[in-house]
Design goal:
The protein is an alpha+beta fold. It has three domains: about 1-115, no CATH class; about 140-250, Roll (SH3 type barrels); about 255-340, Alpha-Beta Plaits (2-Layer Sandwich), CATH 3.30.70. The chain is built from twelve helices and eight strands. It has helices spanning about 1-5, 15-40, 45-75, 80-115, 125-155, 160-170, 170-180, 185-200, 240-245, 270-285, 315-335, 350-360; strands spanning about 205-210, 215-220, 225-230, 235-240, 250, 255-265, 295-300, 305-315. A five-stranded antiparallel sheet has the order 4-3-2-1-5. The protein has a three-stranded antiparallel sheet with strand order 6-8-7, with helices on one face. Helix 3 (about 45-75) packs antiparallel against helix 4. The longest helix has about 35 residues, at about 80-115. The radius of gyration is 35 Å and the shape is elongated.
């Protein structure tokens, strides 16, 4: 490289600059091409890993390698020392940003690999949801740390900023108090997120009831949580909500849900046929997990008796469908076989009251 730019010493200064930039990006393009070929070759052995590498790293590496070459080659071009220092600092800033981008994308690759290992698209996914919740939060914290580290390196690459940083450190006591008050809310959110990630009152895909709405935990971010409501609305709550307020978590320890269906029938309804048909309805559907089935009379009034049917399902969405299915089938059974046992109002009409009233009026 010194020989190449030495031969161009008689040309205008912009010529070697254009040549250096062009050569660097050509080399970067070739390096990216070789990397992609290598990744596609090794996809045969571990397709998922190298597919993730190709997805996340192909763009970042295209800029990182040329910037390194420009940073080396710029020293062999005849520049004024002050101009060279300025250009070198600018290139260093872009190198730091590019390197930070590569590291952040590597965290995405690590997340993809862990997601493959801990799949939540299975029936018993409690452990996978626990691990995924921790992965999501730890990844976000790591990205924040990387960005802060990148910004610090960029600022420290300028001498003036370095002196300013030394002055700040000298008064770190007062500055720490001021910054602590300014970032109080952010720190509360950060510690609430850490608490949720490791004590896990909620996990990704948990079925919860919050603010009188039923839904699933869709996202856990650094400062807020997104709940997907059953009708596809999104409820966004601050992350501190789940450490400061009571809420229902239907899948805290197990995804299995106990569902209930209530029927209100007349006293003339025989219970044994109803119980047998309930068991038959459950046995004919794949929604039931074949663990719990109970039919009981749980209450009575002057007009009806209350029949409660309990059944279990693998998770809350299946439990909702199972409850609807059982309710429809049981109502249909009563309508077809015992229509007289549907709720009704009884009234006894006699003439004695009328006669007494009549006599009273006549008197």
């Amino acid at each position: 490289m010194p020989l190449l730019f030495g031969e161009l010493s008689g040309f205008p200064s912009w010529v070697p600059v254009v040549l250096l930039v062009s050569l660097s990006f050509v080399v970067g393009f070739l390096a990216r091409l070789i990397l992609l070929r290598f990744i596609r070759y090794w996809q045969i052995r571990d397709r998922k890993l190298f597919k993730s590498l190709e997805k996340h790293l192909s763009g970042s590496m295209f800029f990182f390698i040329p910037l390194l070459m420009i940073n080396v080659g710029i020293n062999y071009i005849d520049f004024h020392p002050e101009s060279l220092d300025l250009i070198t600092n600018i290139i260093n800033v872009f190198i730091i940003m590019s390197f930070c981008s590569v590291l952040i994308r590597l965290t995405h690759v690590a997340q993809d690999m862990l997601y493959i290992r801990y799949d939540i698209n299975i029936s018993n996914n409690l452990r996978a949801r626990k691990i995924r919740t921790q992965i999501i939060y730890v990844k976000k914290v790591v990205i924040v740390i990387l960005v802060l580290f990148c910004v610090s390196l960029i600022l420290l690459s300028f001498p003036g900023v370095r002196k300013f940083g030394t002055t700040i450190l000298a008064g770190a006591g007062v500055a720490g108090i001021i910054i602590g008050f300014a970032l109080q809310k952010s720190l509360v959110n950060l510690f609430a997120g850490i608490q949720i990630a490791f004590t896990q009152p909620i996990k990704i895909d948990d079925a919860v009831v919050v603010e009188k709405e039923w839904g699933w935990i869709e996202e856990i971010n650094l400062t807020y949580v997104v709940v997907r409501i059953w009708d596809l609305r999104r409820l966004v709550l601050p992350i501190t909500y789940f450490t400061e307020n009571p809420f229902q978590n239907w899948t805290r320890n197990n995804a299995q849900i106990l569902g209930s269906v209530f029927l209100y029938v007349d006293y003339s309804m025989p219970l044994e046929p109803l119980r047998k048909h309930f068991e038959k309805v459950l046995s004919e559907t794949k929604l039931w997990d074949q663990e719990t089935s109970v039919l009981q009379v749980t209450d009575t009034t002057e007009k009806t008796m209350t029949i409660r049917m309990l059944m279990t399902a693998q998770n809350s969405p299946i439990a909702f469908d199972l409850r609807c299915y059982v309710r429809e089938k049981m109502i249909e059974f009563i309508q077809q076989n015992y229509p007289e046992s549907l709720p009704q109002v009884r009234a006894s009409l006699t003439d004695s009251g009328s006669e007494k009233v009549g006599r009273g009026v006549m008197e």
